[in-house]
Write a structure and sequence with these properties.
The protein is α+β, with helices and mostly antiparallel strands. It has a single domain, classed as Outer membrane efflux proteins (OEP) (Up-down Bundle). Strands 1, 2, 3, 4 and 5 form a 5-stranded antiparallel beta sheet that branches. Helix 3 packs across helix 4, helix 3 packs across helix 5 and helix 4 packs antiparallel against helix 5. The protein is elongated and about 135 Å long. It is found in: Cell membrane. It is a lipid-anchor.
């Protein structure tokens, strides 16, 4: 609906009335366009398979790994780390802002004023018959209590509460998203440290094997059974293995310090964080329906809340075109003390009280163009919020599907590399025994060792990647927090977790 516009010069009561009527008509035409986002998702993920797990498992997915050390680190991070406390402080700020906004909406403006003054009058000269003018001190006291209450006849306060509540909901989802991301970061850093510990253990084992081969080669050279170059080659391999072990040891120490910082124990000794040199297979993951992302992912819920807030804000801007009715009751008390006119040297006082009540009407007449511009601007912001919500939903679906596909590939890779590592270990052990018995040369033994090292390194790397991918999958599925249907009503204790 596009009302016709007539340019008139405001200067008479008729023109002002016409502008006011135009504002009311425009307000009636400024209906909520109800911006919506396309949130339809496929029924299933492409190529993903897995056992369905209950929501309680997703809420605290790190317990699925059955690793007490991991669970303790995640719990410590969620209660003590700077990231968790920073997220809680931001949520506390949002709650405080909401309390102030709610009070501003529902508690009327109540200024309490008072005044007191004292004056003195000295009669310097007086001619003619004696009058009523007397010299002396005068005192005046007054106090008033006035209330201004806006009558919400069109739902302006309800729309403003929609903005406030959805802003708080978005802040709560941002808080939960930060905690979920923190839990995932701790788990991934923990498994990365475990991978380094296993690699360091493998490197030390390689040093032991290289030293044994070097001793064998030195003995064979001393007995004249092998050329001296064999001893040189094994010594070089030993030095390389020792250098690799030293490098991995430093990387592990750095990873442990980073993990301590992440959980809020940044200045604790490295020895306080033991890291086992073992890697278990990744636990099974859930394959939830894509539609559950709309309820489980905190970033999706945050984008949804911001769209709802923007829509409510658009309604607030539209309602600004309507008249405002304000009820203003008030009471007052005054007292005056002055010299008595009848009895010189004495004083007289007067105390009085008064009350008032008024109804004010405010119609936005001259600022209608600005209000319409504000509506257009907020309409554009609401459209942006709808598009951001739509993009967040699609990105969440893509991230989850990709994580599931990659995890499935990682699991197949672990199975294949595990079989290959067992065969490589068997081949190396046979070659080592043959070399010790003089049935094979050093070259074939070293080649068998190198094949085993490569297979073992590849297997451990694949296991670590599968574990980290499992963490990524749980996070992508919206794990790490407990969804609430009404986040704005969540207990204030949430921020103290």
């Amino acid at each position: 609906m596009k009302p016709s516009k007539t340019v008139r010069r405001p200067g008479s009561g008729a023109s002002l009335s016409a502008l006011a009527l135009t504002g009311l008509v425009l307000a009636g035409c400024a209906t909520d366009p109800r911006h919506t986002a396309e949130t339809r998702l496929p029924a299933t993920y492409e190529g993903a398979a897995g056992a369905a797990l209950p929501d309680q498992v997703l809420d605290r997915w790190w317990l699925v790994f059955n690793d007490p050390a991991l669970s303790a680190l995640v719990d410590t991070a969620l209660t003590q780390s700077q990231d968790a406390r920073l997220a809680a402080a931001r949520l506390d700020e949002a709650r405080a802002v909401r309390r102030g906004q709610v009070r501003q909406l529902y508690i009327p403006s109540t200024p309490l004023t008072g005044s007191a003054n004292r004056s003195s009058t000295d009669i310097i000269d007086q001619s003619g018959p004696g009058g009523f003018t007397q010299g002396g001190d005068s005192e005046n006291y007054s106090g008033s209590f006035d209330v201004s209450w806006e009558l919400d006849l069109i739902g302006r306060r309800r729309a403003a509460m929609g903005v406030v509540s959805n802003d708080l909901a978005a802040s709560r989802f941002a808080y939960e998203g930060a905690r979920a991301a923190l839990a995932a970061s701790v788990a991934q850093s923990y498994f990365q440290a475990r991978v380094l510990a296993v690699q360091l253990d493998d490197a030390r084992e390689s040093v032991r094997i290289a030293r044994a081969l070097a001793d064998l080669a030195t003995g064979r050279v001393a007995r004249g059974l092998s050329p001296g170059s064999d001893a040189d080659r094994t010594a070089a391999d030993l030095a390389q293995a020792e250098a690799q072990a030293a490098s991995l040891e430093a990387e592990l120490q750095v990873a442990r310090r980073s993990l301590l910082i992440l959980v809020g124990r940044g200045i604790d000794p490295l020895a306080s964080l033991p890291v086992a040199a073992t890697l278990a297979d990744a636990p099974p993951t859930t394959t939830a329906l894509p539609g559950t992302l709309l309820a489980r992912r905190p970033d999706v819920r945050e984008a949804q809340a911001r769209l709802a807030s923007a829509s409510a804000n658009l309604k607030v801007n539209e309602l600004a075109l309507f008249p405002t009715f304000t009820l203003s009751p008030g009471v007052g008390l005054t007292k005056a003390v002055s010299p008595s006119f009848l009895t010189p040297g004495s004083t007289s006082s007067t105390t009085s009280s008064a009350w008032s009540i008024g109804l004010n009407l405010s119609i936005p007449v001259l600022n209608i163009p600005k209000l319409l511009a504000d509506i257009d601007a907020q309409d554009a912001r609401t459209e942006q919020a709808a598009l951001a919500y739509e993009k967040t939903v699609q990105a969440a679906f893509g991230e989850t599907e990709g994580a599931l596909l990659q995890l499935s590939a990682d699991q197949r890779r672990v199975a294949l590399l595990s079989a290959g590592e067992r065969r490589a270990a068997t081949a190396y052990e046979a070659a080592r025994r043959g070399y010790a018995a003089g049935l094979s040369d050093l070259t074939s033994t070293l080649q068998a060792e190198q094949s085993w090292r490569a297979a073992r390194t590849g297997l451990n790397g694949a296991r670590g990647q599968a574990l980290q991918r499992t963490v990524q999958t749980y996070k992508a599925l919206g794990g790490g927090w407990t969804p609430s249907p009404n986040p704005s009503a969540t207990s204030e204790q949430t921020s103290s977790r």
